[in-house]
Structure formats: C-alpha cells, structure tokens
Amino acid sequence: MAAFLIPSYLLSTALYGLLFTSIYLLLATGLTLIFGTLKLVNFAHGDLMVLGAFIAFLFVTLEGWSPYLAMIPAVLVIAGFGVLIYRFTLKPAARTSPVNMILITIGVSYVLENGLAYYFLPVYRTGVEIPSPLRGTGILLPGKVLLTYDDLSIILISWAIMVALYYWLFRTNQGIAIRALSQNPVGASISGIDASRLGYLTFIVGSALAAIAGTLYGIAFTFDPFTGILLTLMAFAVMILGGVGSIPGTMVGSAIIGFAESFISYYMGETWGEAIAFIILALILLVRPSGIFRGG
Amino acid sequence: MSMSAGAGKRLKLPGSTYIKAIAVAVALAIITAVSRMWGSYPTLIAMTIMVFYVYSLSWSLLANTGMVSLGQALFFALGAYAYGIFVVSYGVNPWLALFAGPAVGALAGLAVGFVSSKLRDWYIGIFTFALTPAGYALAVSSQLSPWTAGAVGLTLPAFPLSLGARLALSSALAFAAYLVILLIKNRRIGFALSAINDDETAAGTIGINSRLYKTMIFGISGYMAALAGAMFVALYTSYVAPDYFGYPDLEYSVWPVFYSMIGGMGYPEGVLIGTVLLDPLQNWIRSSLSSTSVVGGNLALVIFGLLLIVVLLRAPKGIYGSVARYMETRRARQAR
Which residues pair with A146 in a beta bridge? Predict the structure, then answer.
C-alpha cells in the first residue's frame, strides 16, 4: 500500500489539521473582528500572538506556572499592548489614507518582531516551545496514534472560546452593539452606541484572542520572534478565504487552510505546507475576491 | 549627503522637470565621486544606495497609483535568481544577463499586476505579501535546487568590471531608472495613473482602461525591482540567497517602503533623499551594533520601524514633502 494511504498516518495528519484549524480560527476571528468593526487592517496581529506566546513561556519557565494558567497574564499583557497600539498608532492613522494605515501596522509589526528578537535571540538562540507537564501523555487511538492531552485541551479550549465569543456577539447587548457598529457606523452612533468605547473593546477582545491563540500555538509548536509574519499571513489567508467579517466563513476558511497545511506538509514538506495557504489565497483572490461567504 | 538635501531645497523653487533631473544627476555624480575618493568601503555603500534607489523607485511607482506592494522582494529576488541562473547554469554573458534577467521580474510583474488590478487597496498588499513565501518555497525546493542551489544559495562569478566602474555603472542605471519615472509621469500613462489614483470610477467613465494601465505599471515596476536585484547580486554581493524573497524575514520587502515613505513617496527626488540618508545610516547602525551584540541588526530595525511610524503619523509626505511645503508657505508669505 502506498505510504500516504496508511490509515494511522491519515489519522495523525488529520489530527494536526484539526489543531491548526483550531488555532487559526482563534487568530483569524480576532483579525476579522477588528477589521469588520473598525475597518482596521492590522498586520501586527500575528506578532501580538507570538508576543503572547512568549509571555506565557516566561511565566511557565521562570515562575513555574502551568501553561494553561500562564495564558491569563499573556492575555492581560497583550490586551494592554493592543490598547496602546490602537490608541497611539492605528486610531490616529485611521484618519489618514489606507496606505498609511497599512504601512503603520507593518512598522508596528517590525518593531515588535525585532524588539522581541533583541531580547530573545541572545538567550534562546533557536525557537522555543512552552513546556507542558502533560507532554507525552494522552489517549491512544486505533492505529497507535497518540492524541496527547495537550492537543486535546488546545482543541477544546479554542472551540469553547469560540462558543463564548459567539454567545457574546449574538446574544448580549454589547455584542449586538458591536455588530451594529460593523454594519453601519453612522446609524449605530445615532442610536446612542458609544463607538469610541466599543472600538477599544473590540481591539482588546481581538488582541486577547491573539494572545490565547499564541499560548496554545506555543504549547503545540515551536516558535521564534519571526513566526509572527507567517501567522499574520495565515490569519489573512483564512479571513479572505472565508469572507472578511464573517465568523462562519472564518470557521470554514480555517478548516480549509488548517487541513491543507497539515496534509501538504506531510506529503510535500513543511515549506510547501506553509506556502499552500498562500497559493490558496492567491487563487481565491483571482477567482472570488470576496471569499466563500460574502462578509461585511 | 548634505549636497543632495541642499539640492532638494533649491530645486523646488523653479519647479522645472529639467532642473530637477539635472540636480539628481549632479547628486548621483557627487555621491559616486566622493565615495570613490574616500575608499573602497564607502564605494560599496554608495553601490547599495544606487541599488536601493532603483528598488525604492519601483515600489513608490506602484504606491503612487494606490497599490501598496508588500512583496516587492518577490521581483527583487526573481531578478537576482534570474541573473544567477543565467550566468551559472547557462553560461550567459554577465552583461546580457544583467539586463535580460530582470525580464523574468517584468513577466511576474505583469502576472501579479493582472490579478492586483482587480483588487481593492489593502488586498493588493496581502496578495503581494502572500507571494513571497511561495517564492521562497520554490527557491529552496529540492526540485529546483540544481538551478537555485537550495537554501545554501548561489555563488556567482565576479562581474567583469573594476570596483569603480561597477559603481559608475550602478549610478548610471539609477539615473536611468529616475528618467523612466519622469517619462512615465509626463506621458499619457502617467496622467492616466494619477486619474485612476484620484477616482477610479471617474477615470473609467472617460475611457481610461484602469486594468490595462495598472497591469502595465506592475510590469514596469517588476522590471525595475528585478533590475535592482540583479544589480545587487551582480555588482555587489556575488551571491544569491533565498532570503532575498523577503521571507522569513521581511527585510528585503520593507527597505524600499522605509526609504520611499521617509524620503517622500510622491517625489522621485524625495525617494533619493530617503535612500541617501537612510541606507548609510542603517549600514552604520548595523555594523556598529553588531560588533557589540549578535542582535544589533534587530535593534537597528526597531529604530527604523519607530522612525517609520513617527514619519507616517507626523509627516505623511516624508522629508521632501515637508520641506517643499515649508518652502511654499514661506514663499507665499514673502509674496504677500
């Protein structure tokens, strides 16, 4: 039997696909929330994620926290960072041209990445992974495929957060106000919605999602200061594929990108696995620039 | 350095294209002569100025039409690889390869432009950005490694010219690139592009085919960026590496953005000022910090990133635009 048809390989590759899907989902949802509501294109999103992963890493290695607990300080710090970035760069830039705004977020991304590298590289040299006490333990699936408790909790946490976010956006007044703001900013302001306050809130939630995604990514995979670019691109690929501003679209998009990445990585090598997302992105822009689900 | 900044101030007053062109030629000649007399290290720095001037012009040509390319390094690297493969694998004459290699960049530019012309502002940024990992993947892939030498990179034979002659050649090419920008600006295509940039729908109603012009300008920009890449490897490094694709480190895609935006994106003379000021500065910061720490280069990039943010927020038209505006207000005040 050809190697690529062995059921246990298929199963473990599919598990990786599910893992990628869950993490990209959180990341791209943050991005699409910020873009949909504030019309801000944030190229530093993936770098916020890596910074979050690194903060969690420090709490785990230096303070001996559990990685899942270390997510909390990571979320707090990144949410704070997000507010600072929004207040001092993106908000003033939104009044100038879209070209300037894109370039400013590129500048922010560059500062974050190289600032992190300046601190990180002399100490750690290569990429790091957040050490987890659960490492190596797990449920043995048929075909001797190990589903580690870490992978399982990453998948469960991501989807639990997505459910909570969905509830927040569609069932609470705050969430409904944010959706109103994304559909019609002027109309929302007229009906008494405080656009400035909700703008901050959206950015905080988006950055917090990035920090959670970062911590989970750091538990499952190695990362280094420059992983952020790749993750930003992945998030954009997912967002555009699904349809900008659409959460169901983001789910479908992250599944397509996540599974494509894991299967292509397995059969053609990791470089192509990373590139496939962008090849899909280029194709979708060529054929249907509004994505699968036409979003806001 | 100070010469060109001074020239920038003076040449705004008459506002004539010819005077600007002469000032740019004089500035390039002075940079060439001074660095050549100074020594061989300044000569090399001057060469990178010329290469990055061509490269930054190719980026700002697109940006002035409202198309922000975040993957300009794709064309840069394609030009570098085309030159390297032509010379090493096929034994093409280096002179021929220097000018024919960038044709690959022009073709890629036309293809990318054909897709981009249909996309709205920031989608173009994402699209071009997303092409660079694919370029990198191709360069390091095992299927193409007989030509590209994979991750190791391609070592090239020396270009058949002395150091001084190589600098003279690169400054001549830089001036040629500047003239091309001027020509485009003052021709039908330039007017069409500025109309498209102001209001694409209105431009369409008066019969301007925006898709055609945008695709063409991408092709021209692709050739210029690829020429810069070919000049870089042929005249300066003699080595082609996969990271010229601006991936995994963005570096090669963001330098033209830094130089153009800080210098003054809308003005080819401003781009020259940006390149002349910032390129030696980044080389200097990098070399002086690298001696103390392995991550000195990263600190240099943090400084440049902050500089870019401040310029974009405080003076979106860059150094040249701000100086020009200051001169104009002063003249207006004196006239009154």
Answer: A140
Yes or no, beta carbons of B70 and A282 under 8 Å apart: no
| C-alpha to C-alpha distance for A263 and A259, rounded to whole angstroms | 6
Q: Domain spanning A3-287 has what CATH number?
A: 1.10.3470
Contact criterion met (CB < 8 Å) for A271 and B136? yes
For domain B2-335, the CATH architecture is Orthogonal Bundle (1.10)
Q: CA-nearest residue of chain A to B246?
A: A229
DSSP B196-250: HHH-HHHHHHTT--HHHHHHHHHHHHHHHHHHHHHHIIIIIISEE-GGGG--SST
Inter-chain CB proximity A271 and B140 less than 8 Å: yes
- pLDDT values of chain A reduced to their tens digit, one per residue, 296 residues: 456 667 788 888 899 899 999 999 999 999 999 988 888 888 899 999 999 999 999 999 999 899 999 999 999 999 999 999 999 888 888 777 777 888 888 889 989 988 998 888 777 778 888 888 877 788 888 777 888 888 899 999 999 999 999 999 889 988 888 888 888 888 888 888 888 888 899 999 999 999 999 999 999 999 988 888 888 888 988 988 888 878 888 999 999 999 999 998 888 877 788 788 888 888 888 887 777 776 54
Q: Is A115 on the interface with B (CB under 8 A)?
A: yes
pTM of the entire structure?
0.87
CB–CB of B182/B25 below 8 Å? no
Q: Do B119 and A271 touch (CB under 8 A)?
A: no
Q: Which residues of A touch B308 (CB under 8 A)?
A: 103-104, 106-107, 110
Cβ distance A122 to B294 less than 8 Å, yes or no, reads yes
Torsion angle (degrees, nearest 10) of CA B282, B288, B290, B291: 170
Is residue B332 less than 8 Å (CB to CB) from chain A? no
Query: Would you list the DSSP string of B60-118?
Result: HHHHTTT---S-THHHHHHHHHHHHHHHHTT---HHHHHHHTHHHHHHHHHHHHHHHTT
User: Does B335 lie at the interface with A, CB-CB under 8 angstroms?
Assistant: no
